[in-house]
Design goal:
The complex is a heterodimer of chains A (155) and B (140).
Chain A (H helix, E strand, L loop, with lengths): L2 H17 L6 H22 L9 E4 L2 E5 L6 E4 L20 H21 L7 H26 L4
Antiparallel strand pairs in A: 1-2, 2-3
Helix pairs in contact in A: 1-2, 2-3, 2-4, 3-4
Chain B lengths: L2 H15 L7 H22 L17 H11 L1 H18 L6 H23 L18
Helix pairs in contact in B: 1-2, 2-4, 2-5, 3-4, 4-5
């Protein structure tokens, strides 16, 4: 997806996060935070010229849905790195600027709590919820200069 | 996890999904997928088709034998409905296809089908030990 599409999704995810209670709705909240943060990261990676923003949809690591020969048709194929599915999935071999390293580090805090709390029985505490909320804010803050540089301060 | 914990997680997701509207179609699709996985695990564990330490996650992780066993026990329509939710994800969650609102509503409808099927198949097998809560109301 292109940069604008990622940021449009992130804006709608953030609007939902504001309606969810971070503790009572934690399972959906953290999934939405992870999704929003990943879109922000993808936008910043595109803005920095590190990943491709071509029109393709990631299905699984290194596999993408790409437009087929006829309108409305799609095929799966491997291709150069486009959108990442999660932080570190797939791994990015290129060196990242320090700001994007910080964004990835923040997203790892969210990603590390995601499966144990969503699919597993890890206890959801206010402290954990706040740590994840702070990590989300850190991710957005770290990517902001790169996105503002590309968008001329729109975000 | 135990069937009781899956039941509880599924209901927590459904309560949160009730706060989503048409603009939140990605969250509806993702939340429906996750809640549905808990309902399916609830049924699989309640029916002793899978031990609590072996949770279903994505259909493409199942062996042919597992898929066949689960289809026979739960009815093929449950995992077909789950497949359909999964198929929405590349285009509407990881992609930006048009009319995401319709896809989001479809995911919620499929979740309802999976929930009702899982509960019906599990009736009498091992009822949940936790208090039942209202189900997700329909929202525009």
């Amino acid at each position: 997806m292109n940069l604008a599409q990622h940021l449009e999704k992130a804006a709608r995810y953030e609007a939902l996060m504001a309606r969810l209670d971070v503790v009572r709705d934690f399972e959906l909240w953290i999934w939405v935070a992870m999704s929003s943060g990943t879109n922000v990261l993808n936008a910043a990676l595109h803005a920095a010229g590190i990943t491709s923003d071509r029109a393709c949809y990631p299905v699984r690591p290194n596999r993408y849905m790409v437009p087929g020969a006829n309108p409305g048709t799609w095929t799966q194929e491997e291709g150069p790195l486009g959108d990442v599915l999660h932080v570190d999935v797939p791994a990015i071999e290129a060196a990242l600027p320090p700001a994007l390293e910080r964004a990835c580090e923040a997203l790892r805090v969210i990603d590390d709590a995601r499966d144990p709390c969503v699919r597993g029985p890890r206890e959801i505490t206010p402290e954990l919820a706040e740590a994840c909320a702070a990590a989300y804010r850190d991710c957005v803050k770290a990517t902001k200069p790169i996105l503002e540089g590309r968008l001329g301060g729109a975000r | 996890m135990t069937p009781e914990r899956h039941h509880e997680k599924a209901e927590r997701f459904e309560r949160s999904l009730a706060l989503c509207g048409d603009a939140d179609h990605e969250a509806r699709i993702e939340g429906a997928m996750l809640a549905a996985s808990h309902w399916i695990n609830f049924a699989l564990h309640a029916l002793a088709l899978a031990p609590p330490e072996k949770d279903f996650q994505h259909p493409y992780f199942l062996t042919d034998d597992e898929r066949s066993t689960y289809d026979q026990a739960l009815g093929p329509e449950l995992l077909r409905a789950y497949d359909e939710i999964e198929d929405l994800r590349p285009f509407y969650v990881r992609g930006a296809d048009a009319d995401g609102a319709t896809a989001g509503r479809r995911a919620i409808a499929l979740l309802g089908l999976i929930r009702d099927g899982a509960l019906a198949k599990s009736t009498g097998a091992r009822p949940p030990a936790i208090e039942s809560r209202p189900r997700t109301p329909a929202r525009p």
